[in-house]
Amino acid sequence: MSETRVAIVGVVVSDTDSVESLNRILHEFSQHIIGRMGIPYGARKINLISVALDAPLEVIADLSDRIGKLPGVSSQTAYSNVVTVIEQD
């Protein structure tokens, strides 16, 4: 059996040169993404992105870690108490 958890990854992008890499990473995890919302904040020259996920803990941690390693990008994850147990054959 394995578990999935609902979580939100908050992302702050201050270096637009990292946007292409960020989008590539998000695409790799697209099967786990429930939705995402991006807000450009021109006054501060940053972009704010929230990514909602339903995935195993390891997948969520991997995504957040990879995003956080991009230059000019930071991320923080909030985990819910919503857990789904998946029985495997």
Overview of the molecule:
Helix content is 25%, strand content 51%. With 89 residues, the protein is α+β, with helices and mostly antiparallel strands. It has a four-stranded antiparallel sheet, with helices on one face. The longest helix has 12 residues, at 57-68. 16% of the residues are buried. The mean pLDDT is 95.
Q: What is the CATH H-level superfamily?
A: ACT-like. Chain A, domain 2
How many distinct domains?
A: 1
Low-confidence stretches are none
Helix tally equals: 2
Write the element-wise H/E pattern from the N-terminal end onward. EHEEHE
Please tell me the CATH architecture by its name.
Answer: 2-Layer Sandwich
Structural class: alpha+beta
Amino-to-carboxy terminus distance: 9 Å
Which CATH class?
Alpha Beta
Write the layout of secondary structure elements.
Layout: E1 2-13, H1 19-28, E2 33-41, E3 46-55, H2 57-68, E4 73-86
Antiparallel strand pairs: 1-3, 1-4, 2-3
